[in-house]
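Field log, afternoon session.

UNIT: design team B
ACTIVITY: writing a sequence onto a fixed backbone
BACKBONE:
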């Protein structure tokens, strides 16, 4: 008896002498969705030097680790930091001071908002974004007469919600030298009775846009910091910025290295000579915060402005098949440059003809079972013959589920019977077994939970349509979460360093007081992020 007691006391004493490892942060009393391969749920994790060193049950973590910094989650839910795998981060920030025109009930309200914004913030050029004629009673492109009356002496340039059409007033058209005789490849200048209406589609937009003074370095710096602040508030810890120039990538890199920009960014390069010489020809560039390994190109325009390239004419415009915004030769040449350099290609394709065109080009450079992870952005309308080609060539369909719920009230007018081949996210997912889901903000709202909701229920926030939109292509909750975390980073070759909460990965995570897997799906759009952490550092708190 005495011998047994001594053995027990010795064991207790030995355990007491075990020195626990000191770490920077211990998270405890949580429900942690790790989003690992088994979708494991834990209650605690230890973090040191910005990375997860252990994750498991509370007792196990507390037995091995100690810290002067403990985060008691009090039963809240923790998820990997949300990732937006297709957005315009810098562009969103630059647009924050301009008039926001989404939700305007008619053209008159658009002009009124512009006037009000100019009264508050007078600028050399009147700029705004978000108008959408499909939301108006008269679903037609407007003309610029009201703009001319409101701003006779100031140039006006306002971009449609999809970023593929704009309206300019007469002053702006004059500055750009646009007349009744002006034409452009890969775009359209809408005219009535031979006179430009001010509406510019796709490449025609550049005629005016290039006349607008370039944003200064200070303006771009402020834009990045302001965009970061808003993104942290909705749980975003990483973004893929779809199309940057050389100086903009350098600015992002410098701000990250100085510590003022903590957002992790996958920067896609515009196909410019400067970007080729500075980045592409020198190989992949990567830090803990920045990845440069992708080139962004455009095959067509957008469905809302009838610029999406279709195999057959628009159902509501029988003489129109859309716009191929770059020549096939140019698209092919960019793909060759990328292939030779080991870079990824990310191509904007909305229409079924654009999708087919790019898969035809991609197939020249992609062997079956390759791991180049070339992407087709949006993959919005896909002909059934082309659907299995995604899997054949391991092409990633990069989707935005909020596009489906934004478009579903009018897309059938454009597509007719082809609507059943549009926004086919579940079918696209099955081609490779995974896909990334982003927002394309500022085209859609920055909140990734809106994309989660749209992907799962395919309804407006008010629950319409009652039975959802083409629900055979809805995502499950687990798929929707993976698509904005681990699958999102996989589309950028980053799945080994982030995207899930596992040992050795960056400690980027989001705290919610809501269980995305089990609580009422109807409440998802109204969830408020409680805290956002990057590298184990709190970068946002709803109460601060």
């Amino acid at each position: 008896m005495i011998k047994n007691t001594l053995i027990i006391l010795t064991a207790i004493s030995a355990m007491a002498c075990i020195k626990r490892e000191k770490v920077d942060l211990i998270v405890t009393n949580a429900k942690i969705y790790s989003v690992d391969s088994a979708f494991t749920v834990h209650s605690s994790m230890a973090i040191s030097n910005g990375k997860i060193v252990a994750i498991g049950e509370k007792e196990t973590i507390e037995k091995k680790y100690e810290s002067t910094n403990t985060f008691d989650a009090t039963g809240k839910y923790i998820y990997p930091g949300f990732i937006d795998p297709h957005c315009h981060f810098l562009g969103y920030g630059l647009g924050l001071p301009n008039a926001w025109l989404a939700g305007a009930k008619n053209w008159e309200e658009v002009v009124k908002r512009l006037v009000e914004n100019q009264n508050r913030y007078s600028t050399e050029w009147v700029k705004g974004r978000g108008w959408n004629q499909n939301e108006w009673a008269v679903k037609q492109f407007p003309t610029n007469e009201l703009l001319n009356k409101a701003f006779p002496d100031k140039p006006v340039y306002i971009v449609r919600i999809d970023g593929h059409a704009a309206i300019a007033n007469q002053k702006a058209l004059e500055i750009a030298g646009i007349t009744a005789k002006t034409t452009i490849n890969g775009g359209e200048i809408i005219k009535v009775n031979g006179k430009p209406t001010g509406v510019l589609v796709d490449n025609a937009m550049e005629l005016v846009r290039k006349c607008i003074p370039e944003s200064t370095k200070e303006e771009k710096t402020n834009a990045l910091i302001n965009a970061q602040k808003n993104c942290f508030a909705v749980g975003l810890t990483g973004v893929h910025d779809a199309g940057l120039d050389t100086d903009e990538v350098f600015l992002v890199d410098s701000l990250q290295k100085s510590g003022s920009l903590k957002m992790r960014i996958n920067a896609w390069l515009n196909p410019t000579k400067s970007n080729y010489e500075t980045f592409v020809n020198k190989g992949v560039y990567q830090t803990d915060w920045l990845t440069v390994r992708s080139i962004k190109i455009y095959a067509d325009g957008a469905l809302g402005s009838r610029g999406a390239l279709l195999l057959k004419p628009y159902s509501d415009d029988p003489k129109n098949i859309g716009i191929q915004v770059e020549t096939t030769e140019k698209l092919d040449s960019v793909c060759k440059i990328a292939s030779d350099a080991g870079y990824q290609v990310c191509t904007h394709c909305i229409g079924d003809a654009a999708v087919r065109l790019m898969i035809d080009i991609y197939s020249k450079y992609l062997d079956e079972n390759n791991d180049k992870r070339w992407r087709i952005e949006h993959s919005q309308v896909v002909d059934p013959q082309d659907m299995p080609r995604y899997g054949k060539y391991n092409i990633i369909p990069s989707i935005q589920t909020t596009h489906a719920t934004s478009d579903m009230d009018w897309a059938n007018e454009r597509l007719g019977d082809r609507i059943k081949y549009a926004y086919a996210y579940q079918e696209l997912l099955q081609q490779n077994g995974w896909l990334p889901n982003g927002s394309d903000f500022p085209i859609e709202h920055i909140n990734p939970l809106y994309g989660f909701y749209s992907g799962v229920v395919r309804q407006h926030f008010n629950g319409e349509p009652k039975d959802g939109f083409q629900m055979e292509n809805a995502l499950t909750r687990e798929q929707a979460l993976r698509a904005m975390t681990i699958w999102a980073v996989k589309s950028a070759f980053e799945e080994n360093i982030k995207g899930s909460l596992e040992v050795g990965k960056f400690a980027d995570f989001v705290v919610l007081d809501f269980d995305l897997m089990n609580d009422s799906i109807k409440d998802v759009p109204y969830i408020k992020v409680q805290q956002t952490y990057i590298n184990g550092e709190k970068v946002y708190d709803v109460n601060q």
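LOG NOTE: The longest strand covers residues 236-244.
NEXT ACTIVITY: expression trials, pending approval
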